[in-house]
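help with this:

***
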Amino acid sequence: MGSSVSRGASKVDCDTNGISWKGSDSTVAEESNNSNKSIGIQWQGHIRYYSYASKGDIDSDLADLQKHINNDRFEMLYLYKTPLSEYQWTNSVFFHVFVIFYTNTSEGGFWWSLEKRKKVLILQMSRDFEDVRSKIEGEYRISRKNAWYWEPQFIIRDSSWELFVDLYDFLIIDTDQTNVRYHFAEESCKTFAKIVFDKVATNKKWYYII
């Protein structure tokens, strides 16, 4: 796998076949509250991968990811949501949504999350469900001071028999999701989550109000 690597003080990104790597000891770059390219957000055009089981080595982590993509099959998937702002009183309409998958392999079980942010798609992997549910690239989705009121909330779940590689091909090749820029109304996290859930779920579809 060819790659171009850029190294910062605390961040390593490795672009390879539409995926970039971010090690578990990296800091998280803050995203602007603005939501689309018309107001200055630059869509990065790839999937950023974050492993909580990182070996700290780019090539090793990407090789592990490639192995999972080629060999794993999803058994369960879930949708969870968080408020767009921790100062909301309700998240019944305005919320961020993300997908969680479970794969059971010969090496044991793995939990994955996949979501659309304002600048990039983010894929996470861990052996611990709480890592992918409660955190984004190593940081808590909800600050601990507001965790008493907000925690990621369950929306829907279903079983699955979808191959990881089929979802990857669907997102990267068939629908070209890495080049679909974020737009709050038309191409948001909700739009992306619905595309993924409806593709992977065995029995259910997800419907939401814009």
